[in-house]
């Protein structure tokens, strides 16, 4: 049984290590959107390159995050975590030095691989190291400090972009890694799953990532209507079908099809797809709208959305407690509807938009909606499967959210008629943004309908989330349970 106490020096070092590691990935996911206009200008990139700058990272992260958790359980959580931190930092260095958009996109894909190794490992290290009596407080510190990092991210990113330059958004990860790695090697005990067996589902991971990559390419390049786009779409569907077949026939699949026999689990993940597709599109386009159309500086755009994260940090735990009392159906129905209202309020944000009267009301309503739904969504996912599969349930839900954001960033510019240079024209981008927000609102309404029709109260005594405080606006928290030392 793990026996490290939180009050001990080693316990504090472990918390510091996991916070530093997870903050690298969390900061990266929140600050890159703010930097996109400057990246496009500096590298003379089209809109599709900016989409790939976001999606290349999400693609490899979403496709490999379940495999990353399994590698840690098998070969050592500290070993895989440290490997992920080093990999992430090296890819970040390559991002910061990238001379062309193509190199930046390739480096972002490599970053996602590192993120898939370190993200599951940060929480797993806490669960595998601390005495059960201290584990809850340790997770609370980890999630709280991580939430603060999510809140600081857009502000820091905006300051870096406006000051030293967008490259420092990525280069900042290097000193964090230089601090994190030696602390982890010196103070964090190694742990692994003694009962681990079977082969890794590498084929499933490759097919899943390939299906996502080909489909994303087809969506981003759809406006060209070329043969390559059609071929990519067909091959993407074929890879998706092959992925399903492989997962159904492997003895140790990465994504066991049997988990979807739970109607509750399937329903909540469908709600997740709707909700985080809208969120992904919203945060991608809003960071551009505020700078390209409203004339905000990168720092102004970064801080404009800060109230959303602040509300989640302050009230996510209370929202989870309320859902425990009244059940998840009402929060998962009301939350998306409130967020949909926020999307429509964003239609007031145009040229020379005033922050207090135009932007802030939409941001506050958005934060209220996210507070209402994110914590209950996580709790319902965990409660929908047996406790022994809670880590898998959380991983699937987290990956589903990332896939939803990936598809939204790829599809919305096509659906709204954005041209390759739309982000260079305030008028063209504003027109597309005003088409996109109602689409996002409609997807949220669909999520609310699904929740109202299919989500039910979990059975008594089911698994509850350990991450009570949550500040990330791009994905639900990644939980892990049943960790053995």
From TrEMBL:
Keyword hit for Lipid biosynthesis: no
BP terms from Gene Ontology: response to antibiotic
Domain of life: Bacteria
Residues that span the membrane, as ranges: 12-36, 48-68, 80-99, 105-126, 138-162, 168-188, 200-220, 226-246, 267-290, 296-317, 329-347, 359-383, 395-416, 436-455
A Gene Ontology term for the protein's cellular component: plasma membrane
Keywords for this protein: Antibiotic resistance, Cell membrane, Membrane, Transmembrane, Transmembrane helix, Transport
Compartments reported by the entry: Cell membrane
Membrane topology per record: Multi-pass membrane protein
Keyword Magnesium applies: no
Gene Ontology molecular function, alphabetical: transmembrane transporter activity
Domain Major facilitator superfamily (MFS) profile: from-to ranges: 14-459
Stored PANTHER family: EXPORT PROTEIN, MAJOR FACILITATOR SUPERFAMILY MULTIDRUG TRANSPORTER MFSC
NCBIfam families xref list: efflux_EmrB
Record's protein name: MFS transporter
Organism: Streptomyces mangrovisoli
């Amino acid at each position: 049984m793990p026996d490290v106490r939180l009050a001990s020096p080693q316990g504090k070092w472990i918390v510091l290590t996991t916070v530093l590691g997870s903050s690298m990935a969390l900061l990266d996911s929140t600050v890159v959107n703010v930097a996109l206009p400057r990246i496009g200008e500096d590298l003379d990139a089209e809109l599709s390159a900016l989409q790939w700058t976001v999606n290349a990272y999400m693609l490899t992260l979403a496709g490999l995050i379940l495999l990353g958790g399994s590698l840690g359980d098998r070969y050592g959580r500290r070993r895989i975590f440290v490997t992920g931190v080093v990999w992430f930092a090296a890819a970040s260095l390559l991002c910061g030095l990238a001379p062309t958009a193509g190199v930046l996109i390739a480096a972002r894909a490599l970053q996602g691989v590192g993120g898939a190794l370190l993200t599951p490992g940060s929480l797993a290290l806490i669960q595998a190291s601390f005495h059960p009596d201290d584990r809850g407080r340790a997770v609370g510190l980890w999630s709280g400090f991580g939430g603060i990092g999510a809140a600081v991210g857009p502000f820091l990113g905006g300051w870096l972009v406006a000051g030293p330059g967008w490259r420092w958004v990525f280069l900042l990860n290097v000193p964090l890694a230089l601090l994190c790695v030696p602390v982890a090697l010196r103070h964090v005990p190694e742990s692994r799953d003694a009962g681990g067996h079977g082969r890794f589902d590498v084929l499933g991971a490759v097919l899943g990532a390939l299906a996502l990559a080909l489909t994303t390419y087809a969506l981003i390049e759809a406006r060209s209507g070329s043969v390559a786009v059609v071929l990519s779409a067909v091959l993407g569907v074929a890879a998706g079908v092959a992925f399903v077949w492989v997962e159904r026939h492997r003895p140790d699949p990465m994504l066991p099809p049997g988990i979807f026999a739970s109607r509750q689990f399937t329903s909540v993940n469908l709600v997740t797809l709707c909700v985080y597709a809208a969120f992904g599109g919203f945060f991608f386009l809003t960071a551009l709208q505020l700078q390209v159309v409203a004339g905000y500086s990168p720092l102004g755009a970064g801080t404009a959305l800060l109230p959303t994260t602040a509300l989640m940090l302050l009230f996510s735990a209370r929202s989870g407690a309320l859902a425990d009392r009244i059940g998840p159906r009402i929060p998962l129905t009301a939350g998306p509807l409130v967020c949909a209202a926020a999307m429509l309020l964003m239609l007031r944000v145009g040229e020379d938009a005033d922050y207090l009267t135009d932007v802030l009301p939409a941001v506050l309503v958005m934060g209220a909606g996210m507070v209402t739904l994110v914590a209950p969504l996580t709790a319902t996912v965990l409660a929908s499967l047996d406790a022994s599969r809670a880590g898998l349930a959380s991983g699937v839900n987290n990956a589903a959210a990332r896939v939803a954001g990936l598809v939204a960033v790829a599809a919305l510019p096509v659906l709204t008629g954005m041209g390759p240079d739309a982000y260079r024209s305030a008028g063209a981008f504003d027109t597309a943004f005003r088409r996109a927000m109602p689409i996002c609102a409609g997807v949220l309404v669909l999520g609310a309908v699904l929740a109202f029709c299919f989500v039910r109260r979990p059975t008594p005594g089911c698994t509850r989330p350990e991450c009570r405080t949550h500040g990330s606006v791009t994905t639900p928290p990644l939980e892990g349970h049943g960790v053995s030392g």
